[in-house]
TrEMBL record, chain A:
The keyword Nucleotide-binding does not apply. This is ABC transporter permease subunit. Residues 23-206 form the ABC transmembrane type-1 domain. It comes from Mucilaginibacter phyllosphaerae. It comes from the Bacteria.
Automatic annotation (TrEMBL), chain B:
Belongs to the ABC transporter superfamily. It comes from Mucilaginibacter phyllosphaerae. Residues 2-235 form the ABC transporter domain. Keywords: ATP-binding, Nucleotide-binding, Transport. This is ABC transporter ATP-binding protein. PANTHER family: OSMOPROTECTANT IMPORT ATP-BINDING PROTEIN OSMV.
């Protein structure tokens, strides 16, 4: 653990300029999309009060859009709009549409029919009826819809960082990957405060009387525009190439920090989620990305691993880690899990990853095929002597390993298995383990050292001599601090890597990270 | 002034208005009377094209309404709604100024006219900046009337204007309605289901049923010469009261005894109905009231029993009933 436990306040002070930028981006993102959503939703809502037969269809479509999971929607956007601000704004505005359209429709159809008839009978034309009677009277309901949309947008905007659009999500997801609670809170607390603040301010507007609402409605577009301007498009291209790194890579010594300190690499960098990073590289939105040496997507997306000539990406072992009390409770567990040890080398793991990431085979099938080939597969014994809980992080390799362990335990012991796969990041899966929610999951010694133990730089340097010294260190420290045991390494190396598209690397003559730096430095 | 010929309107398969024709003279008040669903409101709303007729012609002041732009037509016709239809987000002054603003009057002219109207309707200027929600039902209905009258339209259409008011307020407003000089020069069509109201306010009544006019005529004609059993039945329940209101003191003047006594109390004009005369008795024994005949300047002082016997004489000399 840290020599000095940093408080949240210290973290926020230290990162205050980043925090400010992220908050501004967050507000900007929220309101640009809200502004566009109002521009689209309000007229559409009015239109369907005139063409009632369309109302079911329009509200239905807006409702369906609302139910698409945010991350999936962001994923769909990349082929269409790339990464960064554009897809994030579009996704956010799609979420904001439903409450705005629905409340406009409800508000206007709810206006007293007698009042509307009076307006017509006085000799108003349809536009006068709309602007002088229907809209003003529907305004409290419409404002309630905009208020709902704002709060939704503040929440969903945290996900914008997945596709490099910035916002407070950078801290939140960075913190989850880096096991840094202060970082999570530095993003989550301001996001929550923004939601509460905007909700409160809009409730004030909503409760104004008619006279004041007239004024407020005139000022609203200006306020929206000003708030939208807070968002300066973060992907203003600063160098010849653009790099997209995961939040975890950004914060690790054997990641971006090393690239800067050891190589002096100056590249325009944006933070992006691992799930969409490869896609973005393929779509030529990104030129350089972070990845793993055993990555199946290397082959899938035709990427080249750049040579690490200064050795900043030390190789680490992958191994299952298990709670000690689980080992006592399930005496046969350790030897069963160790059956896999030494069987999977780098090329095998890369091949297995390729099958899930590119050929889209299920992790279960990939796991079963592999075990059968190694003559390790045994059918389920249907055991009932207790349940072993297996966890995994949210990427292909972890799913495959979790499946293999499941099959081995079911085939060789009388234990049953419950899997809790797809746990978001290191922090989530490791917290689940220390809180006795899972018994075992595959982890990497590098992550253990840097993200979980958060070892001091001098310790890291000292341990980088060999894979084994790191393995021994984390095994000792985990036992001491968490009562968690590292079992035997599975075999393959896990190391970070920088990747570029093959074609581009060839064209630029880049083979190593140093080549990349030379290219970037040349004018 | 208003001429309606062979008006038809069908909703789905029901003929809401089935071949209706009538005329209203300038300055006259016509009541469209009937139960709900008889087509009276539909007829009214076709006059300012809130509802477009299927066939038939309507002309107001010699001009076919179908040949006018609907907005311009409506601005030239006053319209009063049952539930007043005031804009809840407009102040009283803004509500009344709707039509002037549509007609682009200048502000000074509008303000002057609003003040004049509020004065005539006995509404205080304090209400100027109040919102309709802060006023009583009777006040709201007066504002609705002011809104319809502001541009001084020659024609006024009223859709059950007093239907939502309680009895006391309604009686009071009926009284004001009859007194208001602005209304005396207007051609008015008023829709109502209230027989009393029709008898009280209208010069002529068109009794409607199932989309047709059953009988059109003065209150007395409907009362004493009903066209058929429907008219008779429609008026039956309140017949006595209606008679007492419809028959004027001048009608029974010849049957009133000339007692010569002129007790110095207040006088009832002979143009009033018997009902009003009955109303002024304080009901103690041997009481007299004075009735003044404006034409002959003659005053007769009669007791309750003398008045009732004159009424019964008059009835016996009517041709039928």
């Amino acid at each position: 653990m840290n020599e000095h436990q940093q408080t949240l306040w210290e973290f926020m002070q230290q990162q205050s300029d980043k925090l400010l930028v992220q908050t501004m981006q967050h507000i900007g993102l929220t309101f640009i999309s809200l502004f566009i959503a109002v521009l689209i939703g309000l007229p559409l809502g009015i239109y369907i009060t005139r063409k009632k037969q369309l109302s079911g269809l329009v509200l239905g479509i807006a409702g369906v859009l609302q139910t698409i999971p945010s991350i999936a929607l962001l994923g769909f956007m990349i082929p269409l709009l790339g990464i960064g601000a554009k897809p994030a704004i579009v996704a956010l505005l799609l979420y904001a549409l439903l409450p705005i359209i629905r409340n406009t429709y409800t508000g206007i159809t709810g206006v007293d029919a007698t009042v509307k008839e009076a307006a017509v009978a006085m000799g108003m034309n349809k536009w006068q009826v709309l602007f002088k009677v229907e809209l003003p009277l529907a305004m409290p309901v419409i404002l309630a819809g905009i208020r709902t949309a704002t709060v939704i947008n503040v929440g969903v905007a945290t996900l914008a960082s997945y596709i490099a659009a910035g916002g407070l999500g950078e801290f939140i997801f960075g913190g989850i990957s880096l096991n840094n609670t202060n970082m999570i809170l530095a993003g989550a607390i301001p996001a929550a405060l923004l939601a509460v603040l905007f909700d409160f301010l809009l409730s004030l507007v909503q409760n104004l009387n008619f006279k004041k609402v007239k004024g407020a409605v005139k000022v609203a577009p200006v306020v929206l525009l000003v708030l939208s301007c807070l968002y300066f498009i973060p992907s203003a291209y600063g160098s010849k190439l653009t790099a997209g790194f995961t939040p975890e890579f950004m914060g690790r010594q054997d990641g971006n920090l090393g690239l800067i300190s050891k190589y002096g690499l100056k590249i325009h960098t944006i933070v992006i989620n691992d799930a969409v990073m490869y896609k973005a590289a393929q779509e030529k939105e990104l030129d350089v990305i972070s990845g793993y040496s055993t990555d199946g997507r290397l082959k899938a997306y035709d990427l080249l691993v750049l040579g690490d000539d200064k050795k900043i990406f030390p190789p680490y072992y992958a191994a299952p880690i298990v709670r000690e009390d689980a080992l006592r409770k399930f005496p046969e567990l350790e030897q069963t899990l160790n059956k896999l040890s030494g069987l999977i080398n780098d090329s095998v793991m890369t091949e297995l990853n390729y099958r899930t990431d590119y050929l889209h085979q299920t992790p279960e099938r990939v796991a079963k095929d592999f075990l059968e080939a190694k003559k390790l597969y045994k059918p389920d014994r249907g055991g009932n002597e207790g349940v072993v809980r297996i966890g995994s992080k949210i990427f292909g390799e972890q799913y495959i390993l979790a499946s293999m362990y499941t099959m081995l335990i079911k085939g060789y012991t009388n234990y049953n298995v419950a899997t809790k796969t797809g746990l978001g990041g290191t922090k989530i899966v490791f917290d689940a383990m220390t809180n006795d929610q899972i018994d075992v999951y595959p982890e990497y010694t590098g992550t253990g050292l840097l993200a979980i133990l958060q070892a001091a730089p001098q310790t890291v340097t000292r341990l980088q001599v060999s894979k084994d010294s790191t393995y021994n260190y984390v095994q000792r420290e985990f036992k001491k601090r968490y009562k968690i045991k590292w079992l035997k390494p599975i075999g393959f190396n896990n190391a970070y890597a920088l990747m570029m598209r093959q074609a581009q690397a060839k064209q630029l003559g880049v083979k190593t990270i140093s080549d990349l730096k030379r290219y970037l430095d040349s004018k | 002034m208003i001429k309606v010929e062979r008006l038809v309107k069908t909703f789905g398969t029901t003929k809401a208005v089935n071949d209706i024709s009538f005329e209203v003279n300038a300055g006259e008040t016509l009541a469209l009377l009937g139960t709900s669903g008889c087509g009276k409101t539909t007829t009214l709303k076709m006059l300012n094209r809130l509802i477009e007729p299927d066939s038939g012609t309507i002309s107001i002041n010699g001009k076919n309404v179908m040949e006018q732009e609907p907005e311009a037509l409506r601005r030239s016709i006053g319209y009063v709604l049952q539930n007043n239809g005031l804009f809840p987000h407009y102040t009283v002054a803004e509500n009344i100024a709707i039509v002037p603003n549509l007609l682009k009057w200048d502000k000074a002219k509008t303000d002057k006219r609003i003040k004049e109207l509020l004065d005539k309707l006995h509404l205080f200027k304090d209400y100027f900046n109040a919102y309709p929600g802060e006023l009583s039902g009777g006040q709201q209905q007066r504002i609705g009337l002011a809104r319809a009258l502001i541009a001084d339209p020659p024609v006024l259409l009223m859709d059950e204007p007093f239907g939502a008011l309680d009895n006391v307020t309604r009686t009071k407003i009926h009284h004001e309605f009859k007194e208001l000089d602005e209304l005396k020069r207007k051609t008015i069509i008023i829709v109502t289901h209230d027989v009393q109201e029709a008898f009280e306010l209208a010069d002529r009544i068109a009794l409607m049923d199932k989309g047709r006019i059953v009988q059109i005529g003065t209150p007395a004609e409907l009362l004493f010469y009903p066209a058929n059993d429907f008219v008779k039945d429609f008026l039956k329940e309140q017949h006595l009261q209606l008679e007492l209101k419809t028959i004027k003191l001048t009608d029974i003047w010849q049957y009133l005894p000339d007692t010569g006594k002129k007790i110095n109390t207040s006088q009832v004009p002979a143009s009033a109905g018997i009902w009003d005369a009955l109303d002024s008795y304080k009901f103690y024994p041997r009481e007299n009231i004075n009735i003044l005949n404006q034409q002959s300047k003659e005053v007769r002082s009669v007791t309750f029993s003398q008045l009732m016997s004159a009424y019964s004489h008059y009835k016996n000399h009517q041709p039928h009933e």
